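Homework-ish question, so no full write-ups if that breaks the rules, but can someone show me the predicted structure for this set?
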Amino acid sequence: MKTAHAGWVFVTPALLMIAVFFLLPVLAALGLSLTDFDIYALAQLDNLRFVGGGNYLRLLQTPLFWKALGNTLFFVLAGVPLSIAVSLAAALLLHSAVARGKAIFRTALFAPVVTTLVAVGVIWNYLLHTRYGLINDLLGRVGIHPIDWLGDPRWAMPAIILFAVWKNFGFNMVIFLAALQSIPEELYEASRIEGASALQQLRFVTLPALAPTLVLVSILTMAGYFQLFAEPYVMTQGGPLQSTTSVLYFMYEEGFKWWNLGSASAVAFLLFLLMFAVTLVQSFALRRWSEP
Amino acid sequence: MVAGAGSPGLGARWLSITALVCCMAACARPDSGVIVLEFWAMGREGEVVAELTRGFEASHPGIRVNVQQLPWQGAHEKLLTAFVGDATPDLAQMGNTWVPEFATLGALAALDPSAAASTVVEQEDYFPGIWDTNVINDRLFGIPWYVDTRLLFYRRDLLAQAGFAHPPRSWDEWREMLIAIKRLPGADHYSILVPLNEFEPLLLLGLQQEEPLLRDGGRWGNFRSQGFRRALGFYLELFEKELAPRATNTQIANVWNEFARGYFAFYITGPWNIAEFKRRLPKELQGAWMTAPLPGPNGPGLSNAGGSSLVVFADSRRKEAAWKLIEYLSQPEVQRRFYALSGDLPPRRSSWDDSALSGDRYAAAFREQLERVEPTPKVPEWERIATEMRIVAEQAAHGGLTVDAAAAELDERADRILEKRRWILAREAGE
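A: Not a homework solution, just the prediction itself:
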């Protein structure tokens, strides 16, 4: 009994902090999402109307919301696997016994993660420029016509994905590297004795050993990629033709540009529900896979 | 922000709280009878205005001015949060399209009694369109500080090459020139740059029409009116006939370089570009460009009445002193100095006389245009409606919508945005 009391005493400060700085704001936002809180309500509180699920219903009928959702899903479905594949490939290369200059490459590949997004966003704007950009220049040398990366609605999101993957893969790479280093050498030795090829070693030794790390990395990356905001904010402002407007960018505009805080809170909750569902499915599926 | 990016944790927050507390201590009113005015100014104006307030402090020994600079980017949000947090300054510079919003909020003090009694601020001396932007429901909430309007910057040499000796005076003439310039031999080029990420060009064409952009006291969109559809038709024609590139500003890496290269011959922009064009265009082109007032559907056209006003906040306890500062900044000689410091065009006719401006050949078109400027609809929702206008126009320019479909879509969006306003107005009428 006494130890239980002591436990509560120790936990209370943390719980209080969570209640005040997390639970309370979340509940307030939930309440807000049921009203039409806007600039008029800011002026006079009796301009506030309780609209129940009205914000949610209206959002579901707003084409731009669906478009933003579609854009975000595209970004997640294309970006997350690509990002994980690139991180894993980079980690395997860096981990391989024949690699030289590991420290230099590790630093170089990790560098984009610690650079300021705004600064590299501007640099990528130049790289992606239609007429003077380096990327189109290189493509031109192999006979590909210039692509209007950030101006063409079809190419803007792929360009953003490319940029985001480049910016973020170093982080997961470091996690994979750490996991690779913890795989016992004996397993490889044993598989070699059994006559496994390099590919078979990857398939039957490395990947199963990495499974828990993969679960962690994919959940973290997924959660991060769903919250796409800064890249379109810096590089395209959601354009062209709103092809890079993500759910979060939509929420930002709704809330802090137009001050429809009620409707913006509703967007936040819809995004939360979506991410919660996806993460549940993902962790369930991946756990089944990683625990044979 | 994507996975792995850190957040500015508690450290930064504590730092800003500490800074706030220190500021509160430092900003507290000094013990003597000196009045300290809090004055918020944005961007470039915020940088140079301290030069002017020093003169004010010299002539008004009992008043000191504390200028706070806000970057334009965050200014709107900062002003709103200040209002919500009861922390508004005494007076501020405010983009004149924001005045309706803050007046609706009740954040601003009405200035008509002070202006009526003033011997310095004389309404007749101001350009009427600019003054009008500050009048909301027959009450005055701001005094114009400087004006911004957009008009044509064009290449005289290209126009001459196409066979025209003067800039366009009507849409028909303009269209003829645009087509002729497009046909000029030479490298791949267009006639005009109309960036798809700016709502201003279409807005200007719309303002030139007789019908207002919103109808019934700003309750409903009026985009299906004949006038606006004519404006939209003219706008879309620019893209259909390949007279303007389907491009945003960010895609044109350097507008001045492209203008110098002859990639386009007309550009609709504002007074800040006079200095930029002088500085950035190559020497051999310096005689080849000019400014001209906007052509209208039939003869000289209207443009927008942009710029900033000086406003006093309703919560200020130093309104009299704030008004004195506004009067000081509104004197023609002070406005001339302000122009010299910032390049911002003065809103009063007498400030233009005998100044460096009256001799500037590029400014002459602005002087003429300022007599023909028109405020945008004065409802708090206007900026959002203008943004929707840009989005729909961009879609139409890419060939996705006809003029009629785009106009109907715009009305639908505007009506939805104005729903709350209609509800409030109806309730007020019922009370």
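Now go work out the reasoning yourself. Hint: The mean pLDDT of chain A is 90.
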